[in-house]
Fold each of these.
Amino acid sequence: MHRLLTGLLLTVLSFTAHADYVLETVAEGFDFPWSITFLPDGDYLLSMRSGELRRVSTNGDISEPLANTPGTYVAGQGGYFDILIDPAFESNRLVYLSYAGGSPDANGTTIMRATLTPDGFSDEEIIFRVSPDKDTPQHYGGKMLFLADDTLLLTTGDGFEYREAAQDKFSQLGKVLRLNRDGSVPADNPFANGEQGNPYVYSYGHRNPQGLALDTRTNTIYLHEHGPKGGDELNRILPGKNYGWPAVTHGINYSGAYVSPLQEAPGVTGALTWWVPSIAPSGLAYYDASVFPDWQGDLFVGALVDRDVKHLELENGEVKNQRSLFSELGERIREVRVGPDGFIYLLTDSNQGALIRVTPAN
C-alpha cells in the first residue's frame, strides 16, 4: 500500500438547526470515484469510473488497483458504477460490481459477482446484463441496493436515445430491476411470469436513476433520477408502478422544446419532490444512525451542479424541508453513503477525487 494523503483537512461549520460537523479528508487522488462500500474490518472499497477498484484503510492508505476486475466501456458516463458487499460477506466474501459492459456498438449495464481476495477478485461471474444492448455511452443508471429479503435492486437508464423504452415494460431500459443474488428472477416480481412485462422489472418510467436508498425501519425504497433540462426527481419506489418518463416530466428538452406537456397523468406515480433547474443528483443516503440524532430519518442527496449535498427532512415519508450542506468543499459530489460507524461519507467527482468523512464536531 502507499499513502496518497499525509495530512487531514478539517473544516468545522455550525448550523443553528443541526449539530456541528467536521469534514475529514480520508484519502484523495482518485480518478473520478463513483461509489464506496464498507468492509467489516473498517476498510473501504472504492470504484472508479475509469475502471479501477481500490481498497482504502481507515487512516487513508490506498492500495494498488485490485486484480482480476472486469474490463469496461469507458466513454461518456460509462465505466465502473456501484459496488456492494454481499449480505453474508463475512462468510462468503462476495462483492457485486455494476459497470458498463460491452462495446460502443453494443453495451449495457452489467453486474459481476466475485470473491474478494487480499489482492483483488477470484471466481468472477457475470450474473446479469441489461437487455437490450444500446449504442450510446449515456444513461446507464447502475445503482444497486440490497433489500431486507436479500434480493438486489439495480437501476437502469433509458440510454438517452431510447427514452420511449422506459415505458415499455418488456424492455429493461429505464427501469428498476429486481434480481436474486445469483442473477435469477425472484418469483414475486410484479411481472415474474413474463406475460405483462419483463420478469426482472420492478418499476418503470425512469430516465437515469443514480440514487437508491432504503429506510430499513419501514422498508421504504427511495430513488432519485436525472431529469432532462430541469425535472430531477425523488421518488418512493413501489413494485409494478409507472414513474412517468417520458410521458410525464417536470423538465424540457435541452433544446427548449417540450418532452411532454404533462406533469401528471392517471396511472403515473408522482414524485415526492423535484428540482427545477436541475441539481444533477448523484448518490443518495437514508440516515438511520445515532451519531447525528437530528438527522435521523432524513435523506441526503449529492448535487453535482450545485456542488453540495441536499439535506431533505422527512415527515411521514414526505419532504418537509430542504437545505444545502457541505458547500464549503466547492466540489461536485458524486456519492453519499452512511457507514456502519454512523458517519456520512462523500466522494468528490474529479480526476483527483477525495473520500470525505463527516463526523460530529464534539
Amino acid sequence: AADRAAAEAAQRAEEQTRLAAEARRKADEEARVRADAQAAIDRRNEEARRAAEAEAARAEAAARERVEAEARIRREDEARRQSAEAKRRAAELAARQEADGWPRSAAETLRRGRTAEASLQLGDAEAKRIQIALTSLGHVVGATTGYIGPQTRAMIAAWQKAQGLPETGYLTALQLDALQLQAAPALAKRDEDEAKAAADKASAGDAARQAEAEEAALGLSEGARRRVQVALSSLGFVIGATTGYIGPRTRAMISAWQKAQSLPATGYLNASQLALLHQQAATALATYDAEQRRLEAQR
C-alpha cells in the first residue's frame, strides 16, 4: 500500500510538472505571438509612415515643379521684354558713343576704353557676372573665375563688335549696363541658384543640428553604441572594429543605412530609427548579446 501511494504521489508530481511545463510553453508561445503581432504592427506603422513621407515628398515635388514652371514662364516673358529693350539700348549706346566723338585711332580708343573700365573698379563678383553674361550670349569665356584675362578680353571685344561698338576689350559703364541687360535671364538664374544653394546649406545645417540633438537625447551608453555598430555591420554597412566610439566611419555607415531606408541621411539616429535598426538586425544583436553574457559570466 505504501509503495502504491508513493507511486501515485510520484505520478501526480510528474503530472503537475508536465502541466507546469505545458503552461510555461503556452505562456511562451502566447508571448511570442504577441511579440510577432506587435512587430507586425510596428512594421505596418513604419511602412505607413514611409508611404506618407513619400506621398508628401511627391506632393512637394509636384508643387515645386508647378512653381518652377510658372517662374520659367515669367522669366521667358521677361527675357523677351528685356531682349527688345537691350536692342534698343545697344542702338542708343552706339549712337551716344558716336556723338561723344570717340577717336578713330586704335591706340587712343583702347586707352579710353581701359580708362573707362578702370573707373568702374570692378571686383571679383562683378567680373564673374561679366563672364557669365558673355558666355550666356554665346561669347564663351570658359571657367567663371572672376579674373578678366585674355580670353575674357577677347569675348568682350567680340560682344562689342556684335553691338557695333569700338572693339577695345574693355567695358564702359554704359556698355556694362547693356551687357547685363542683354544677359539678364542668365544672371537672374545664377542669382536664384546661389540663393537656393545658400538656403539649402542653411536648411541642411539646421537639420543636422536637430538630428544631432535628437541622438544626444537618447543618451546612448558605450554598450548601446557598440550594438549600433554591430547592427550596422550585420546589415552590410561595415564599421570595422566594434569600439563603442561613433566616429567618422560609423557616421558614414549610419548615413548609408538611412539613405537605404529613404530617410534623411544625417548620420545621427533618433529613437524611431534606432528601433528600426535594432529590429532589422535582431538576429545579429541576439547573438552578440548572448556572447556578451557568456563573456561576462566567465569573468
